[in-house]
Write a structure and sequence with these properties.
The protein is 35% helix and 23% strand. It is of the alpha/beta class and 466 residues long. Strands 8-7-9-6-10-11-12-13-14-15 form a ten-stranded mixed β-sheet, with helices on both faces. It starts with 5 loop residues before the first strand and ends with a helix.
């Protein structure tokens, strides 16, 4: 990056754009931006926060882009957007978000990249907290808000600005941009079908791992275990909930009302430590092992890393309890692909209470790609008395293939013997949930790419409280 340059972020409120904008601002760059949500009057508190951070905001009509401004967009931004057209007309340079982030990442002397189909944000937050708590003062670029770093002045703490030489970043495979990164430490939690075919994913993750000095890999996932087998022992740290051949092994996993406890030990009877996570589920034990492995690769002793991890308070919208009213608990969750959904449902089923699941798909494209997997996931992981309700996928504009919709998923889940309903919009889903929720039920608002899902969950709680 060039600290004396003016960067204009088109879509600055996005989960991957906001933290990068904050990191550039902290490093001395001039930062401005636009966002469709701002123009539509959504997420006002987020944009107020950006203004307070010194970011100038414009309508998404091209007026903020001038000659000499570096336009930054995500891969999803289309050429028809006025900001893009204005940049071309003015001869302004244009970079993709992933291109700019990878340049900053690759310039860092101690770069830790966190990749995988599921668990990236949580693992990134865990690593960032361990390194911060143990005095390494890292910079962290996350795609979600990290609760440990929230302050009155920083309510949207998806970035942490540190002065140390470690840069921790979530790395995305969905747009292929993972190919740009050259990590010192590469973390891969898991590999499964999501935005790309399995053949494409295998090649992307193989290249990512091959560029690292050391890779932290999950032996409980068939694909990442295969990656581990291609590396010499000195270039890998493996972890598992079950496999005694792993370098880090979890034992005595005990679900708790607000989290999960476990013992972690190194291979061949080496060091061990106790961890009590404040986030629930075996999938978070797996995320924790990945974080411990990365922290140890950065020089943190296991005992210190485990102690810090016990103070990790979680990530926003990851099984986050909004509140309880009339005996009904409302939970906000980011799960949006089959693996994430299955992990959420498995965790919630460890405790009593019917699940009323609102799932808003994160796009028509992913719904088409994973139609059969979504049906199998809900059909196989909902309990007999659970209920699934779905609106149509999130859509904020642009061209899209709508050949597969929510009704296709609902029909498949019903055919699998589970109760499921489709509604024209989210409001109608909410009416059904309020009308059918009863004491001891848990309502789970599930989906990605739409910050208003949290507001929707809060509105359900308020309606229940009346």
């Amino acid at each position: 990056m060039a600290p004396d340059r003016h960067y204009f972020f088109c879509g600055i409120g996005g989960s991957g754009m906001l933290p990068l904008a904050l990191i550039l601002k902290a490093r001395g760059a001039t930062v401005s931006g636009s966002d469709r949500a701002l123009d539509q009057g959504r997420n006002a508190s987020k944009f107020d926060f950006l203004r307070q951070a010194g970011v100038t905001l414009f309508p998404q009509d091209g007026t903020g882009v001038k000659a000499g401004t570096m336009l930054v967009t995500s891969a999803a931004v289309e050429d028809t957007i006025p900001d893009v057209q204005a940049a071309r007309a003015a001869g302004a340079p244009h970079k993709l978000r992933a291109e700019l982030l990878s340049e900053i990442f690759n310039e860092s002397p101690n770069a830790i990249g966190v990749a995988g189909t599921s668990g990236k944000s949580t693992t990134t937050g865990m690593i960032g907290w361990i390194l911060s708590d143990t005095g390494f003062d890292p910079t962290v670029m996350n795609g979600a808000v990290m609760k440990n770093f929230i302050t009155e002045d920083t309510p949207f703490a998806s970035a942490l600005i540190g002065q140390g030489d470690i840069f921790v970043s979530e790395v995305d495979e969905s747009d292929g941009s993972i190919a740009r990164y050259h990590p010192r430490v590469a973390v891969v939690n898991n590999i499964s079908l999501d935005h790309k075919t399995m053949e494409e994913l295998r090649e992307l993750f193989r290249t990512f791992v091959s560029r690292s000095e050391i890779a932290v890999l999950n032996l409980d996932n068939e694909e990442t275990a295969a990656l581990a087998a291609t590396l010499p022992p000195k270039r890998r740290v493996t972890y598992s909930l079950h496999d005694p051949k792993a370098d880090l092994l979890a034992n005595a996993i005990t679900p708790l009302p607000g989290g999960v406890a476990f013992e972690v030990s190194t291979r061949n009877g080496g060091a061990s430590a106790s961890v009590t996570l404040q986030v629930p589920g075996e999938h978070n034990v797996s995320n924790a092992l990945a974080a411990l492995g990365a922290a140890m690769a950065a020089g943190v002793p296991l005992s210190d890393a485990a102690t810090a991890l016990s103070r990790f308070t979680g990530i926003r919208r990851r099984l986050e309890v909004i509140g309880t009213a009339r005996g009904v608990t409302v939970i906000d969750d980011f799960a949006h692909n089959p693996d994430k959904i299955a992990a959420t449902l498995a965790t919630l089923h460890q405790f009593p209470g019917r699940l009323l699941v609102l799932f808003q798909p994160h796009g028509f494209g992913p719904l088409k790609l994973m139609k059969n997997e979504f049906i199998a996931c809900f059909g196989g992981n909902l309990a007999a008395n659970d209920v699934l309700v779905m609106p149509e996928p999130v859509y904020f504009g642009g061209t899209v293939d709508r050949s597969v919709s929510s009704i296709d998923i609902i029909q498949g889940v019903e055919a699998a013997g589970r109760e499921a309903h489709v509604f024209a919009d989210r409001a109608a889903c909410g009416d059904w949930l309020i009308g059918h929720a009863r004491e001891s039920d848990r309502i789970i608002v599930m989906g990605a790419r739409d910050d208003t899902l949290t507001e929707f969950g809060q509105s359900l709680l308020e309606r229940l409280a009346v």
